[in-house]
Amino acid sequence: MKILLISANVTLSPYPLYPLGVSIIAAALTKAGHEVRQADFLQQNSSLDAIGSEVQEFVPDLVGISVRNIDNVNLLHEQYYILNVKNIVDTVRKHSGAKVLLGGAGFSLIPQLILEETGADYGIIGEGEVQAVEFANNAAKGIYPRERLIGTQAHLAGTQISSALYDERLLEFYLHSGNIASVQTKRGCTHSCIYCTYPLLEGAKIRRRDPRAVADDIETLRDRFKAKFIFFVDSVFNDDEGAYLDVLDEMVRRKINIPWTGFFKPGGLTDEIVERMKLTGFGAAEVGTDAASDTTLKRMGKSFSFSDVRESSDLFVRHGIATSHFFMFGGPGETEETVREGIENILSLQKCVAFIFMGIRILPNTPLARLAIKENIIKAEDGLLKPVYYLAPGLDKKWLEETLTKAFTGVRHCVFPPDAMDNNLQILHKLGYTGPMWDLLLPGRKPKPRERTRHAAKQP
Which domains, from first to last, does the chain contain? Predict the structure, then answer.
């Protein structure tokens, strides 16, 4: 069966990330004997005509569309992405009679409403490797499910999570946009952050891939595709069970050294561990701090205090690791007093970058959604497909925006709103510079000289 898989993501902030989920599904379908082509809406410059040409050229029997993000979770500059998905579905229908199947992390959060709004035929909820193959195998026989939504509560074992079938055409675009390639080492999240959907999507237990398979992926990206920077897409890289240490050990054993970054939680790291990570190329840390005072950290379900945040940040900085933090103001327990305290705490952090958000996007079935219902911010029947943000009752939105703007305007390493630097960073990537680029906001940081590769932008 000929299957066209399309990534509908158009998110560029803080930098574009390779559509790993699509390539993992492509690997599973290819292994099952299907002919698969991967396409990417972002790589096609968000052109519906280009997507139409892909459909006309490939003539698929089935089209799968991955929905990674519903919106950009930015209260001050909202962007809603589901209309893009609907337009892609309509474009496919214009050129083909193939069934359209939706999936992806964003789709799985609000599947019924997204299916209705886009007009797709079917949707897969949760991990798609097994379900997509089963759907395609049956479709090849003309058999389709009675229900439009297909889902299971079962999760793959870590060793069953396969390597992605990286697509050279797509990778060329993403490597040209910073030489950043995506790798997953595990699924699952053991933490209880009240707003987060990772436990809903991936489960509350760590499912670790074989470290040897992870290392194989990295070597493939480095040697075959000439990737210059790796992003580990795990919800938290430094998990409490130590799965990440096994990956590091395998990388050290193979003498793999390539610049990389990932998401980190404060705590659990030592000088020795950071030095070991540096042996493998660890160069930047994106820390999910999320709240800026002990009061709001506790109400967000965090297991650490701001002193832990400061200690972890200082640890990274001491070892020369470019460090960024992400903060959200307006969460549960936020008051004018905690806002002022949080601003002081952020400004006290040394030699790191802070991205500051206002409000927290409410998503279904999270503790935050239940709290918002209790506080009459939303109603139980609200679908939450269109963005709705939590702001602590009694906290004035206008006051908060003005206070954050005043506090961080002119502070180079504190970015508010969080997308304020996006255009500048994207220009540097287009010029051929490698890496996340937000590290250039740190004192004394300058772009490294560009390497002349087939991905680098040509200069006169």
Answer: 2-154 (3.40.50.280), 179-441 (3.80.30.20)
